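Example: 3-carboxymuconate cyclase.
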Amino acid sequence: MAQANEIPLGLYVALESTGLVELSFDPSKSVQKSLSVVSVCKDAGHMPNWVVARGDEVYSINRTAYPDGRSSSGGVHSFRHDDTGFHAICKASSHGKGGCHISVSPDGKALVATNITGSTVTVYPLSDDGAIGEPTYVFDYNKTDPGPLAAHPHQTSFDARGRLMLSALRTMDCVDIYAYRSPQDIVKIARITLPPLSGPRHFAIRSVTLSRALLYVLSEKENSIRVYRLNMTDAGPVTVNLMQAIGTLDKNCQLTAPDMNDLAAEIAISDDGRFLYASNRGFQSLANDTMTVFAIDDTSVEHHLVYVDTQRTYGKHPRNFALSRDSANQWVAVANQFSQDLVVFERDVQTGRLGSVRGKMDLRVKGTDEITFVNRLSLEGVVTIRDCLKGRLEGPMCVQWKK
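Written out as structure tokens, the predicted fold is:
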């Protein structure tokens, strides 16, 4: 049973067709009415790909055409959000093609933008009012690692303690680890090399002690999670030990050949450290895609992740999902890119499984001058090939719960 919520329920969605969409979620209402649009921001650049919030400050990155169609670079954007919607603070170039991910350091002083096509990672200082400063670093892998494969970073984020910055290099099959002290003081201290053609896409990192963390790397091409133990010292060096590799697609937990028939997409861990979630995208059928749930066993090394279940996402191409920020992570919001919808599940905090669907909203745009969305009430994520082609360019790329 759902308990009283500890925080207001709201979400931000980076929607490629439109911009940033603010939604409210009221679980007391029916599945078709629990999600509603609060505000829409159309000033987030061409093809917004990611959004992140820190208090009232909202940051996003768009894929290309910043500041206009003559440029192929992405752009980063900062907004202040209040009851009347999004208010632009500033924007800047992401310094690379294919802006796909953005994150803020735990101390709130740094913003980092990841550009997959351009193979660059850009770090900016943040002011107290949310303004984005001039870049302090542009890590250009075309120059530092010129070949034969492009780096194609897909996520760059920080550990919860704000000591490390990590970047997953999808095509180079590496994860780079940097020591982070400030936006002006970032140094690469280690590189994890994964098997060729594994395709590390995203990761989650979990602090265990002051000197030890566990890193969970999701590789999309072989549909796997690798668990690494990171041992850190105040002096900076990090030692890395592989604990486990496990497949994400089903109960067999087998890694796959990099045939692109299936591609893992996103990874997240519940705040209590008991469960891990990974979404899977299938390219061989139009059937609903899935999310796999693992239990975390801190007493085991070889069997640290234990398979629990694989469940439907009631949509196609779950590119991103997010656990709600209440203490129980009671809700899971899934952004299905190709079917262009958002689905909210209730989460069973005891078993980790996804429970009943408590909200679903179609995010296909019906109008452009005054943004309205198609009203589709079917719970099943039924799509056609045409839907998938449109969703690839217009669908939801990222969902985040408001804090």
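The chain is about 5% helix and 55% strand.
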